[in-house]
């Protein structure tokens, strides 16, 4: 089966202006009832999206919905499992840890209008709320010029949009799940006081790029553990990429500001190697100012797999 853009969920373009990330845990009390709720939700999602696109076509609504490893095992115990869908194992480095946190169901909803994001998530929850509890809900936003909240252009290392499909979407290496994707979600809280106390040139060395122009620094100007070095996957001398759709989040009154990292990948192994580099091998300089508070891996099914879920045909 070949990769077909129309059969993928929204996993490789359009970060959005207003974003909702919601992670739910199933109750794990009544498998049949919870499966029925998930099936109804999966059945309703396409119609909800179509309706909202008719009502607010300029909002550019995009949605990704997926399953954690434990949820897959619980809901579909007799089904084949996506090859790389596992419970994320925490990565303990010499200084920092990429923790692993629970998560059964994942929603990534974004649009140009916050009212559209709200309405879509509110409608989704009508069908699933009684079968779940909320693990995390984070509201993200587009910062100035699409920059990260720490002031640097974000997404520079992403593949070109014309190549993104190849990096974000599963191909014929796992034919039962072609057109799906692996989403890794990680919520970072920043120490903005400490970060803003750095001189601009020291921030640039930490990131590996110029703050204003986004030009990459020469190798000798970067720190050995600058972010754009530590976060690369260069296995076998080849750069392997993922598609990032990171957005800032903040509650200024509570002095909470951070970045919600979301990486979509054809192979979770690529994302995992990046994380190992950041936390274990190279101790990414950015982690001196950023604490990972969550860590979840999800499988984002193709539209055909979602139809199979609805029809009990996995």
Please give a structural write-up:
The chain is an alpha+beta fold and 314 residues long. The protein has 9 helices and 12 strands. The strands form 3 sheets. Strands 7, 8, 9, 10, 11 and 12 form a 6-stranded antiparallel sheet that branches. It starts with 17 loop residues before the first strand and ends with a helix.
How many β strands by DSSP?
A: 12
Structural class: alpha+beta
Estimate the helix proportion, in percent.
25-40%
Order of helices and strands, N to C? EHEHEEEHEHEHHHEEEHEEH
List segments where confidence is low: pLDDT < 50 over at least 5 consecutive residues: none
Q: How many helices in DSSP terms?
A: 9
| Range of strand content | 15-25%
Shape: globular
Largest sheet: 6 strands, antiparallel
Radius of gyration: 19 Å
Query: What is the distance, rounded to the nearest whole angstrom, between the alpha carbons of the first and last residues?
Result: 16 Å
The average pLDDT is 96
Helices and strands in order:
Layout: E1 18-26, H1 31-55, E2 62-67, H2 69-75, E3 91-92, E4 97-98, E5 105-111, H3 114-128, E6 132-141, H4 164-168, E7 181-190, H5 192-196, H6 200-207, H7 227-230, E8 243-244, E9 247-251, E10 256-265, H8 268-281, E11 290-292, E12 296-300, H9 303-310
Helix pairs in contact: 1-3, 1-9
């Amino acid at each position: 089966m070949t990769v077909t853009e129309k059969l993928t969920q929204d996993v490789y373009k359009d970060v959005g202006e207003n974003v909702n990330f919601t992670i739910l845990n199933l109750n794990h009390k009544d498998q049949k009832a919870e499966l029925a709720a998930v099936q109804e939700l999966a059945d309703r999602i396409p119609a909800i999206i179509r309706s909202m696109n008719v009502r607010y076509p300029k909002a550019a609504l995009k949605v990704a919905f997926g399953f954690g490893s434990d949820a897959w095992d619980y809901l579909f115990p007799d089904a084949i499992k996506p090859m790389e869908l596992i419970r994320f194992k925490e990565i303990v480095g010499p200084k920092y840890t990429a923790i692993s946190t629970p998560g059964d169901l994942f929603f990534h909803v974004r649009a140009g209008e916050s009212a559209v994001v709200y309405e879509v998530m509110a409608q989704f929850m009508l069908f699933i709320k009684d079968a779940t509890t909320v693990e995390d809900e984070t509201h993200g936003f587009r910062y100035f010029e699409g920059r990260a909240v720490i002031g640097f252009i974000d997404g520079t290392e992403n593949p070109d949009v014309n190549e993104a499909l190849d990096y974000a979407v599963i191909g014929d290496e796992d034919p039962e799940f072609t057109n799906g994707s692996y989403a890794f979600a990680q919520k970072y809280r920043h120490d903005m006081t400490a970060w803003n106390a750095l001189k601009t040139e020291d921030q640039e060395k930490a990131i590996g790029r110029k703050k204003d122009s986004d030009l990459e620094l020469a190798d000798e100007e970067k720190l050995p553990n600058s972010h754009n070095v530590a976060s690369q996957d260069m296995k076998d001398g080849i750069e392997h990429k993922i598609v990032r759709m990171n957005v800032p989040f903040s509650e200024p009154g509570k002095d909470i500001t951070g970045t919600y990292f979301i990486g979509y990948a054809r192979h979770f192994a690529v994302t995992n190697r990046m994380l190992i580099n950041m936390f274990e091998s190279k101790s990414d300089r950015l982690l001196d100012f950023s604490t990972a508070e969550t860590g979840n891996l999800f499988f984002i099914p193709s539209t055909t797999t979602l139809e199979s879920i609805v029809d009990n045909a996995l």
